Amino acid sequence: MSEFEQGRSLSPRGPIALMSRFYKYVLPEVRNCLHLWRKDAEGIPDPELRKQALASLETKQFHCEGGGVYAAGNLPMRHILIPLIVAYQTISDYLDNLCDRSTSLDPEDFRLLHQSMLDAITPGAEPVNYYALRSEQNDGGYLHRLVLTCQNMISRLPGYMSAASEIHDLAELYTDLQVYKHIRPELREAALKEWWEENRSRAPQLYWNEFAAATGSTLGVFMLFLASCDSRLTKPDVSLIRSGYFPHLCCLHIMLDYLIDQEEDRTGGDLNFCNYYDNTDIMLNRIASIVEWARKDVRNIPETPLHRMVIEGLLALYLSDPKVSEQREVRSVSRRLMKRSPLTRLFFLVNSRWIRKHLY
Ligand SMILES: CC(C)=CCC/C(C)=C/CC/C(C)=C/CC/C(C)=C/CC/C(C)=C/CC/C(C)=C/CC/C(C)=C/COP(=O)(O)OP(=O)(O)O
After folding, report:
1. In this structure, are residues 92 and 100 in contact, taking their beta carbons and an 8 Å threshold?
2. To test ligand 1's pocket by mutation, which of 11, 210, 221, 253 has the most ligand atoms within 8 angstroms of CB?
3. Residue 8: what pLDDT?
4. For residue range 212-224, what is the model confidence (pLDDT) as tens digits?
């Protein structure tokens, strides 16, 4: 009987164990997957699709590397989790680029593109022409291969059927966000607020911009992939895990992502969910509250130490980004958020800096 079947935890208990798994297994294996997708993307016939696919792999590599942390939660299953997380995150990053750089502002086009993410997590779903509503269409099968890779990996997760509907729900929220976030700029805020009105009972403590941020994180889905490695996973387990991640931990993740892009987005006139507070102090207090809510939520799910480390890791990873020191206001928010940081966070901070300096 395996360690897993005996019910013993496979999850790292502390930051040193987590980082050693990250360096030894996760980082090299994620990079290997990314290398294979890069080779694949180089063969995309349409020059614009090729450019966006390669750009997403180039500039958003850390999304897959960070997401790969979930494979450290079950090393024996990493041969499934890593290709799955990399393929799913790569679809999301590629489509985000296509929507951002799109000449069309057509919500139906964005929805059809993102149907690929829903198909990726639906075993047996038949891929369609996701580019049917735009002019660039010939990716040589790149997006289909990403979708089929996810489906193939998911079919090897023994507990997946218990998690499927919650994963679908999170992916659908992500899809809605990507549609509303990319339509005509003057319609975006109203569309996002209307959507929040319909969904606000899911996140009663969050404002509309924070709810929208929460839906933009892929971490709830990754955590449910990890949980699906357990053949004994039940639907009540899945609900518990989902509410440990969504909305607060997911919200924290994307608010940090937007925080560090604040000035860039302000200059470019891009929507940024951190720009909807009356002043910096209010934003800081909201983020600090979200950290506390996320900490409280993960206390209710098994393997709490791993999720606590994810919270500390997110703060460390994002707030150590070189973009922080280039923005006066963000630097000050970051300093205040990092005040009285626990040792675990400082340890992840040193590691994040080290990785950026030596492994990039
Ligand atoms: C450098 C490195 C990888 C270090 C990590 C090492 C480390 C310290 C590990 C241990 C600590 C730990 C547990 C860390 C947490 C890691 C983690 C879980 C990271 C998350 C990575 C991830 C999945 C990122 C994805 C982010 C995401 C989904 C972004 C898209 C969301 C979104 C809506 C973005 C905004 O889009 P847009 O406005 O269009 O802007 P851009 O196009 O510019 O993005």
Report:
1. no
2. 253
3. 53
4. 999 999 999 999 9
